[in-house]
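Q&A log
Question type: sequence-to-structure
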Amino acid sequence: MDIGTLRGIGTFIVFVAFIGVVLWAYSSKRKSSFDEAANLPFADEPPKSSERDEQASRSNKE
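Response status: OK
Response body:
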């Protein structure tokens, strides 16, 4: 085997791995988990200023 054959085999293996990752990423079975992961940064979002003001006014009335 010469270096050209080894490079060709390596290129083919990387290509197959790339196709596998693309199929995995765009699989419809994964859509729900990817959508959930996309919303994670917003999960611990602090309340908006108007909501904080309403909460503060409610606690002052009690």
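Response note: The chain has three helices and no strands.
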